[in-house]
Amino acid sequence: MVAYVIRRLLLAVLTVWAISVLSFMIIHLPPGDYVTSYIASMSASGSAVSEGEAMALREQLGLDKPITVQYAKWMGLMLRGNFGMAMEWGRPVADVIGDRLTLTMVISVAAIIFTWALALPIGIYSAVYPYSVLDYVFTFVGFIGLAIPGFLLALVVMYVGFAYFGANVGGLFSPDFVEAPWSMAKMWDLVKHLPIPAVVLGVAGTAQLIRIMRSNLLDELRKPYVMTARARGLSEYRVIMKYPVRVALNPFVSTIGYLLPYVVSGSIIVSLVLSLPTVGPLLLKALIAQDMFLAGTIVLLLGVMTVIGTFISDLLLMWVDPRIRLGRQ
Amino acid sequence: MQNDTRPLLSVRNLRTSFFQDEGTTKAVDGASFDVFPGRTLAIVGESGCGKSVTAHSILRIVDRPGRIVEGEIVLTRTDGSRTDLVKLKANGREIRSIRGGDIGLIFQEPMTSFSPVHTVGEQIIEAVLLHSAVGRKEARLRGIEALRSVGIPKPERRIDEYSFELSGGLRQRAMIAVALSSDPRLLIADEPTTALDVTTQAQILDLLRKIQQERGMAIMLITHNLGVVAEMADDVVVMYLGKVVEQGTVDDIFHDPKHPYTKALLQSIPSIESTPRMKLPTISGSIPHPFNRPKGCPFHPRCVSAIAGRCDTEEPPLQAVGEGRKASCFLYP
Amino acid sequence: MAKHAPALATGVLAEDRIAVATQWQLMWWRFRKHKLAVGGTVVLVAFYLVALFADFFAYADPQESEAQRSLMAPQRIHWFDDGSFRPYVYALTGTRDPVTFKRVYVPDTSRKIPITFFGRGEPYDLLGFIPTDRHLIAAEGAKAGESLFLLGTDMQGRDLWSRLMYATRTSMTIGLVSVALSLVLGVVLGGISGYFGGLMDTAIQRIIEILRSIPTIPLWMGLAAALPADWSVVQVYFAITIIISLIGWTELARVVRGRFISLKEEDFVMAAELLGCSKARIIFRHMVPSFISHIIAATTLAIPAIIISETSLSFLGLGLRPPAISWGVLLQDAQNIQALVISPWLLYPAVAVIVAVLAFNFMGDGIRDAADPYL
Question: Do B165 and A326 make contact, defined as CB atoms within 8 angstroms?
Answer without folding.
Answer: yes
